[in-house]
Amino acid sequence: VNTLLPIDSKDRLIVALDFSSAESAFALVKELGGLVSFYKVGIELQLAGGMSPVQRLIGEGKKVFLDLKYFDVPETVRRAVEKAATSGVSLLTVHGNGENSLQAAVRGRGATELKLLAVTVLTSVDQAGITDAGFRCSVEELVLTRARKALEAGCDGVIASGMEAAKLRELLGEDPLIVTPGIRPEGSAKHDQKRTETPGEAIRAGADYIVVGRFITTAPSPRAAAERVLAEMEAGFKARKPAQRI
Ligand code: C5P
Question: What residues does ligand 1 touch, defined as CB less than 6 Å away?
Fold first, then answer.
């Protein structure tokens, strides 16, 4: 990758298509035409439309992040990833809490172009949630441990909140992909999310991509909301050190 090329924020914004029908998802895709070219398909839209929304997005020249957060016994994960790798999606998530399953996911991906991302700790979980689940460490420690194990297993990157992105960059270097959800511009509704950051903060902290759902999908004008996010990302990229990778 040529690190001297300027970064285009439009390539780094992923919009989460959390819709109950393909029809409503594609109405949004149409509205965001020319602004957004990377979309996340998750468990809801996949149940509504199977793989056809993914195929349609790819057919329309969009990139797809398939966010099904695979978590199962290693062989089942390996086979699912192998199948997903034939679909043309660019990014796929697996859960980052099982070393053997992560290694199996990497075997399933094989020599394909698919980038595997490990979910570290959901952005809807805070310290109280971690403690309640029986972990005797901080959210940050758990994110860092899972991230390190995922990369050792051969994953390409992690999903992590903007709150941990800077620490991840510091400890893991410039190579791993960091994809950050839980993004909300200043003053907007948090919904079920806890570890949120603004688009600018996440980019400045070192995120490669940000994922935005409801701030855009439920906005009175999704297009205006996307433009606001892109402008904040732009400012975030400008504030980064020149040496930081694209
Ligand atoms: O609507 P909102 O912007 O909160 O959507 C965030 C999206 O990112 C959702 O689709 C959610 O599934 C996903 N996600 C997340 N936290 C993670 C991994 C994925 O919020 N750790």
Answer: 16, 18, 42, 67, 119, 122-123, 159, 181-182, 191, 193, 211-215
Asked whether the beta carbons of 177 and 124 are under 8 A apart, the reply is no
Residues pairing with 101 in the sheet: none
Write out the catalytic residue numbers: 69
Ligand 1 atom nearest the C-alpha of 191 is 4
CB 53 within 8 A of CB 25: yes
Reported as type and span, the H/E element at residue 41 is strand 38-41
Tell me the whole-structure pTM to 2 decimals.
Answer: 0.94
Residue type, 163: M
**Token reading at 11:** 């390539």
10-residue mean pLDDT series, the chain (246 residues): 70 98 98 98 98 98 98 97 97 93 97 97 95 96 96 96 94 95 95 95 96 98 98 94 56
10 Å Cβ neighbour count for 62?
18
Q: Is 198 helix (H, G, I), strand (E, B) or coil?
A: coil
CB 183 within 8 A of CB 215: yes
Burial class (CB in 10 A: 0-12, 13-18, 19+), 2: exposed
Report the residue among 13, 44, 68, 123 best suited for mutation to probe ligand 1: largest number of ligand atoms under 8 A from its CB. 123
User: Nearest-5° angle of CA 53, CA 55, CA 58?
Assistant: 110
User: Which amino acid is present at 164?
Assistant: E
Q: Which residue has the tokens 């904040």?
A: 232
